[in-house]
């Protein structure tokens, strides 16, 4: 009888094997054009853990898909202000610091930031700015800020991010309004400005705004700094300008949703990405500002001299959680785009 029992136990272990295999995967939901496939392949090669990777192009898309597919994602990559929203809504799990031994590589200036003051839920992945790219072979006038970009003479020569919060905030900056004071009165002031700007845009693209510039379809863009850095690497005629009126500085983070089913694997992947040589691969492919100072030490002087990746100065401001006003921004831009 004892023998039969132990046989049954061993059989049960065998039957349970697929469950062990199922734990050997991790579902990453990240920004498009941001996580090199070779990083994920390197992790799988070393650990045997399969990485399923889905992408999004805006924080709003991340939030809605995460709510709809709760449990489907183990790591997400929100921007700082969206992480703030997720922490408030209890959508993020506290991180186990003991499993994140490489956290020490993140620079002190990127720790204890306003979106996660105790570094309880988030790990900085990449930081960057939103600025203007000018094809200086074509555009000879000085472009210093948003009002220089959105001029009738540039109609159909512009690409901008397809990001409602960004677009409305550019109008706030141009009007001298604080970026995070999204009141009904301020939105009413921004509305005619955004309406006139939208009419001039040829391409709205958050995934790869560089493409329209590279193809020569447009001459000026308002884009993520990493996109601008790639353009500058391609051709020095693509100059990056941080708008004088103010520019958005973001920190995109890695975090684990409370609903994640593979939290241990998620910690392993985050810790892997925090390795200097792995974080360097991210910079090589997507040259944003790397908050991993140990990785930065591995970059070439040319990489560090890229003015879009590592800008010298600027009037930089972070976005904050603005609660329900985010929906008002979406409504405003959706209305104006459909009226266009
Ligand atoms: N393709 C990667 C883009 C990353 C942009 N993150 C910043 C978003 C701020 N709204």
Index terms:
three-stranded parallel beta sheet; alpha/beta; 2 domains; disordered N terminus; seven-stranded mixed beta sheet; D-Maltodextrin-Binding Protein, domain 2; 15 helices; 340 residues; 10 strands; binds spermidine
If you had to describe this structure to a student in words, what would you say it looks like?
The protein is of the alpha/beta class and 340 residues long. Helices cover 41% and strands 16% of the residues. The chain has two domains: 25-125 and 251-304, Periplasmic binding protein-like II (D-Maltodextrin-Binding Protein, domain 2), CATH 3.40.190.10; 128-249 and 314-339, Periplasmic binding protein-like II (D-Maltodextrin-Binding Protein, domain 2, 3-Layer(aba) Sandwich). The strands form two sheets. Strands 4, 5, 6, 7, 8, 9 and 10 form a seven-stranded mixed β-sheet that branches. A three-stranded parallel β-sheet has the order 2-1-3. Spermidine binds next to β9.
Summarize the structure.
With 340 residues, this protein is an alpha/beta fold. It contains 15 helices and ten strands.
Topology, pairings included?
Blueprint: H1 2-15, H2 17-22, E1 25-31, H3 37-47, E2 50-56, H4 59-68, E3 75-76, H5 80-88, E4 123-135, H6 146-149, E5 158-160, H7 164-175, H8 184-198, E6 201-204, H9 210-214, E7 220-224, H10 225-234, E8 238-241, E9 247-254, H11 263-273, H12 276-285, H13 293-296, H14 301-304, E10 316-317, H15 325-339
Parallel strand pairs: 1-2, 1-3, 5-6, 5-7, 9-10
Antiparallel strand pairs: 4-7, 4-8, 4-9
Helix pairs in contact: 7-8, 7-15, 8-15
The structure holds spermidine.
Spermidine (SPD) is lined by residues 31-34, 59, 79, 163, 166, 224, 250, 252.
